[in-house]
Amino acid sequence: MGLHLDDYHQAVKNYVLSECGFLSSVDDYPEEGSTIAGPCAFFGVVDWDRADDQRMNGELSVVLNCQLLIVFGQAGQVSSKAVRNAAMAVALRIDGQRFDLDAEPAQFVSAEPWAFDPDLDQYVVWAVNFVHQIEVGEDQFDLMPEFLPIDVRVGIAPEIGVNNLDAYERVNDE
């Protein structure tokens, strides 16, 4: 079954929070003007592209471009080295993860200082970027259970085809 973006967000946030004990919270992007208690992280899906390989089952395979902003305390009160080390630790935990989802493993792309959000100017922030291929939509076979095969048989060439059905071997359990 294809994933809903809300479910994906929650799965990533839960995983990062459980694996990165040095973070006090992992949330969606901060509310404008809110005070932030670091160290924490903010997660978002920046955009997505169509994946090169498609399952052809009615779902759409997409590659999500994701970003985790690792936020440590006020600039001048926390070491830049501390936030870099935290970003490295997060990158190591993200790479290859599926976040307990039916999805391909995530792939770490890059990490760099973040200075693109005026609300975060007073904090020391690094962005950890990764991509993750997932399926969205509803699998057509889930919608039509009457079309699922109930008997699976295999034939070995050259004894295959309609004239050789009795030579096929059953491979599914009864």
What would your notes on this structure say?
The protein is α+β, with helices and mostly antiparallel strands and 174 residues long. The chain has helices at residues 5-19, 80-94, 140-143; strands spanning 26-27, 40-50, 60-74, 107-113, 123-136, 153-154, 169-170. The model has no long low-confidence stretch (mean pLDDT 84).
Q: What value does the average pLDDT take?
A: 84
Low-confidence stretches: none
Number of continuous helical runs: 3
**What class do helices, strands and sheet pairing give?**
alpha+beta
Order of helices and strands: HEEEHEEHEE
**What is the percent of helical residues?**
10-25%
Distance between the termini: 25 Å
> What is the number of strand segments?
7
Morphology call: elongated
State the strand order across the main sheet.
1-2-3-5-4
Q: Strand share of the residues?
A: 25-35%
Radius of gyration: 23 Å
Summarize the main sheet. Answer: 5 strands, mixed
Task: Quickly list its features.
174 residues; elongated; five-stranded mixed beta sheet; alpha+beta; 30% strand; 20% helix
Short structural summary:
This protein is an alpha+beta fold. The chain has helices at residues 5-19, 80-94, 140-143, and strands at 26-27, 40-50, 60-74, 107-113, 123-136, 153-154, 169-170.
